[in-house]
Design goal:
This protein is of the alpha/beta class. It has helices spanning 13-22, 43-46, 61-67, 81-89, 106-113, 120-125, 131-138, 150-163, 193-196, 211-222, 255-266, 315-329, and strands at residues 3-8, 28-34, 70-73, 93-96, 127-128, 143-145, 173-178, 201-202, 229-234, 241-248, 272-274, 292-299, 304-311. 32% of the residues lie in helices and 19% in strands. The strands form 2 sheets. It has a 7-stranded mixed beta sheet. The mean pLDDT is 96.
């Protein structure tokens, strides 16, 4: 029997991507979807590319919970806590693609999202769903906080050096670029075509909400409090995240040691592809896939490690990783439904 999947917020970019990917999943099926903006309308009316492939009608949120074994919430922050509590109460699994359960500190959540933890016990039960680091904690859990795009790509790029103590933990810089789908389907001046096309700019410099989330992950991996400099940029492309992470190499550490640490750390990770020396991670090569390509580079003059990570922000940075987490929860091979080859051109 297939896993019955419900998607709340199915007409947003991440929700629609969940539908696309689960449609090809051999052991799961979408049984119900909801949308506040398009309730009563078919998904294929919103996304014509789904015509005859998924003509489901958007229902209300309660109907999605009742019909499903697992519920994915693709909602803005602040809207998932009560839904998560309802899912757990009814014995359903819940994966939140928003930010409500990502931060362990309520103080930080209040500072960065201007909200509070409605149910503190529920937050204690939630686990952070970056499988390459925390899969053992995800197994058997009913509620998972699915990381976003920047917060997936940046840690994956630098983690082996962090875990093995090969770099200084002070002065880490995460210089990241994102495709415009990362801003969501709702339009704004910044995502308006004349503003975006043929332009390239930084935004929310040193004030982006993903900063404490990246710091939380690196702190867990390193065993010490980590403060980073995080600067996101908006690329005039639909999809992709490129994270370039700079760090000082510790005295006595050579690049061969770093290379070996990366090879050992990712040798069994199907979705992380460590590139050969001289190659550079490129968002083109991961498009529509759940892969993260990582390339590492040595700045000999400055004795710095430069680690580059590339993902599709809608897949490994959102829907694909959420399905990877679902597979872990239900004891499936993590690749199930996600073994997608990126297009060559």
């Amino acid at each position: 029997m297939k896993i019955k999947v419900g998607i709340v917020g199915a007409t947003g970019y991440a929700g629609a991507e969940l539908v696309r990917l689960i449609t090809s999943h051999p052991q799961a099926e979408v049984v119900a979807i909801s949308s506040v903006s398009f309730e009563g309308k078919k998904l294929s009316d919103v996304y014509p590319s789904y015509k005859f492939l998924n003509d489901m009608v958007c229902e209300n949120q309660d109907a999605v919970v009742e019909k499903s074994d697992i519920i994915f919430a693709a909602l803005p922050h602040g809207l998932s806590q009560e839904l998560g509590a309802e899912c757990i109460k009814k014995g359903k699994a819940f994966i939140d693609l928003g930010a409500d359960f990502r931060l362990e500190s309520e103080e930080e959540y209040t500072e960065w999202y201007d909200g509070t933890f409605i149910d503190k016990d529920l937050h204690k039960e939630a686990v952070y769903g970056l499988p390459e680091f925390f899969r053992d904690k995800i197994k058997g859990k009913r509620i998972v906080a699915n990381p976003g795009c920047y917060t997936t790509c940046s840690p994956l790029a630098i983690a082996p050096a962090v875990v093995n103590g090969l770099i200084e933990m002070k002065g880490i810089i995460c210089d990241c670029k994102s495709g415009v789908t990362g801003a969501g389907r709702k339009t704004s001046q910044g995502s308006h075509f004349p503003e975006l096309n043929e332009g390239f700019h930084a935004y929310k410099v040193a004030s982006h909400r993903h900063t404490p989330e990246i710091e939380q992950t690196l702190s867990k991996l390193s065993g010490q409090d980590v403060t980073i400099t995080f600067v996101p940029h908006l690329l005039p492309v639909n999809r992709g995240i490129l994270a370039t992470v700079y760090a000082d190499i510790k005295k006595g550490v050579n690049f061969e040691q770093i290379r070996k640490a990366y090879e050992d750390f990712y040798k069994d990770e199907y979705f992380v592809r460590l590139l050969d020396d001289g190659q550079c991670a490129d968002i083109h090569n991961v498009k529509y896939s759940n892969f993260c390509d990582v390339s590492i580079h040595y700045d000999k003059r400055a004795n710095k490690l430069i680690a580059c990570g590339a993902i599709d922000n809608m897949v490994k940075g959102a829907a694909g990783q959420a399905i990877q987490n679902m597979n872990i929860i239900f004891g499936l091979d993590e690749k199930t439904g996600l073994d997608i080859i990126p297009p060559a051109f």
